[in-house]
């Protein structure tokens, strides 16, 4: 069997492992930014619900 058939997948795997190791910090930063955006949206949404519930109870006289 020719060695070339086995070398190609090994080389591709090695290159993808190096690329993954190089991109890991970038992926971490992107994940942190997305988590911050989602946390900000969630806190805004919860705050809006609390304020609207407070306004609704003021109008109803409870």
From TrEMBL:
Record keywords: Membrane, Transmembrane, Transmembrane helix
Domain of life of the native organism: Bacteria
TM region positions: 26-46
Name the UniProt record assigns to this protein: Uncharacterized protein
Organism: Actinoallomurus oryzae
């Amino acid at each position: 069997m020719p060695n070339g058939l086995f070398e190609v997948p090994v080389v591709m795997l090695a290159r993808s492992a190096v690329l993954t190791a190089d991109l890991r910090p970038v992926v971490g930063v992107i994940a942190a930014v997305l988590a911050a955006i989602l946390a900000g949206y969630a806190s805004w949404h919860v705050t809006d619900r609390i304020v609207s519930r407070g306004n609704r109870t003021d109008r109803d006289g409870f």
